[in-house]
């Protein structure tokens, strides 16, 4: 019967529906595949119905299972609302705030800010999640997020708090370092004569360079990655010239900024939260603190 069903079974059910497999659901829930499988089996036994068809390609939800999805989501929403009511009545200076950010922001921007917040609010706890997924806010896996792309979901509230500048750097480890320093002296076009490291989605860099009169394509970036920190590490190891956030490279003595007066582009930082969370006193407090610190520090 549904009245006696463990909520953890329902959470596993929703995640398998979302991901289509036990293994992906296990990773998302930080559990194991056998555990998720047992949850699904137990839930089907409790309800006396088949929720998924097992195939070689994964778990396909049945028509009855799909009927159950919306009801379980309503239960999840009600559970959140109950938690929110309790939070609103609790002490504003206690509790936990989970903040989500990209790897670079989580690594370089947030630590000194969290230090300040902990000094000011010692009874509060903070959890940092490194991800760019907007879904983690919509699913309430995070309370507040710092995003490099403006979310457009209607249930989120967002504001631009600052911008982070991107510069061009080369490592002293790069075999052609002396040649780079000698050749590149105010002439951006000479960049294409050297190896270039770039983000997997180099479109924004290409657009920024084209505005400076340097026209290139994806083929001019023989080494690419989808992570800012890996991009930074590749540049630092001397695999080529590269573009990265100034906050990452400015204190590295092995890196030299090329054409420092050329502003290639900057990345906006959007402070984002679920719309309902702004009515929560504790979340609103930290949201406003983050907005003020970021706007002052990276104005």
Task: Jot down its keywords.
single chain, 299 residues, alpha/beta, Arc Repressor Mutant, subunit A, D-Maltodextrin-Binding Protein, domain 2, 11 strands, globular
Task: Describe the secondary structure blueprint for this structure.
Blueprint: H1 7-19, H2 22-28, H3 33-47, E1 52-55, E2 58-61, H4 63-89, E3 95-101, H5 103-120, E4 124-130, H6 135-138, E5 144-147, E6 156-171, H7 177-183, E7 196-199, H8 203-211, E8 223-225, H9 228-236, E9 241-245, H10 246-249, E10 255-258, E11 265-274, H11 281-297
Parallel strand pairs: 3-4, 3-5, 7-8, 7-9
Antiparallel strand pairs: 1-2, 5-11, 6-9, 6-10, 6-11
Helix pairs in contact: 1-2, 1-3, 1-4, 2-3
Summed up:
The chain is of the alpha/beta class and 299 residues long. It has helices at residues 7-19, 22-28, 33-47, 63-89, 103-120, 135-138, 177-183, 203-211, 228-236, 246-249, 281-297; strands at 52-55, 58-61, 95-101, 124-130, 144-147, 156-171, 196-199, 223-225, 241-245, 255-258, 265-274.
